[in-house]
Design a protein that fits this description.
single chain, 278 residues, alpha/beta, Rossmann fold, eight-stranded mixed beta sheet, two-stranded antiparallel ribbon, Peptidase_S9_cat
Length: 278
């Protein structure tokens, strides 16, 4: 699940830096400035589980949309400090909060949009439901029901170890071990994503893009989010036919990134004229 990729140097200027969370660790981030960007606002990008800001899906968005972007590693991932757990969605929401505060106070820029993929997409929806202070939200392939997971995610011997010891090492990545504990599973299973109903329709609009053949998070979840957040113009739903969870096919990547760009273009005037720029 972990992708090690570098951002091609030809398409943008990138500045890397660390953001102090105030909790004893820093978050690693990169600001990608685009020539002739259609807005001075920043699109913040949030990666999925067992990944980094260099995930293929995140890089696809960075490379294919003309807007300024900022990508970062959640705590316990990539070059960021701290630790991560299987159910720490609200910790990651606060990571997003730290990044947004940094953009506003240290970079003196405005946040136009937060875009997340997979677990990161759930994070941005939870962020929007809690803070309602970023006008545009993009959900790429978010799960709704967290009691469900791919049947092959954990090996039988790992689940047996969980029963005997209360924890197991799911996977080793970089120089870290990803440990699954009983409490982590309970926290994740109890995650209430119906709180997306709390997203303020006067302040926030949401775009959901989901592959029809998503093998990790069922496409049915996209329709649930549509019912909870919608209808248009508050929520726009786009199903990419035959696309998988990561939009791995290059044509699906083009469709996905093109849809994000078009939606941002369409809603820039609403951000400026209707609600004022946050």
């Amino acid at each position: 699940m972990h992708d090690n990729h570098r951002i091609p140097p030809l398409i943008m200027e990138e500045t890397t830096f660390y953001v102090d969370t105030g909790k004893g660790f820093n978050l690693s981030a990169g600001l990608q400035l685009k020539p002739n960007a259609p807005s001075e606002g920043i699109v913040i990008l949030c990666h999925g589980i067992l990944n980094t800001r260099f995930s293929k899906t995140i890089l696809c968005v960075i490379e294919r949309i003309p807007y300024h972007t900022l990508s970062f590693d959640f705590q316990g991932n990539g070059l960021s400090g701290g630790t991560t757990t299987y159910g720490n969605y609200y910790e990651e929401v606060e990571n997003i909060r730290c990044i947004i505060t940094y953009v506003r106070e240290n970079l003196n820029r405005k946040v136009l949009c937060i875009c997340g993929h997979s677990k990161g997409a759930v994070d941005v929806l939870l962020y929007a439901s809690k803070y309602n202070d970023v006008p545009l939200i993009v959900n790429l392939s978010a799960r709704y029901d967290h009691t469900e997971a791919p049947s092959n995610r954990f090996k039988p011997e790992q689940l047996e170890e969980l029963q005997k010891k209360g924890s197991f090492v799911w996977i080793k990545y970089s120089d870290r071990e990803y440990i699954i504990r009983d409490d982590d599973l309970k926290e994740r299973n109890n995650l209430d994503t119906s709180v997306v109903r709390n997203i303020d329709k006067q302040k926030v609009k949401v775009l959901t893009i989901h592959g029809s053949k998503d093998e990790v998070c069922s496409v049915k979840d996209a329709y649930i989010y549509d019912k909870l957040i919608g209808p248009e113009p508050y929520h726009k739903l786009m199903i990419v036919q035959d696309a998988d969870h990561r939009f791995g096919n290059i044509n699906h990547q083009k469709i996905m990134a093109g849809a994000i760009t078009s939606w941002l273009d369409e809603n820039k005037s609403w951000v400026f004229n209707e609600i004022g720029y946050v």
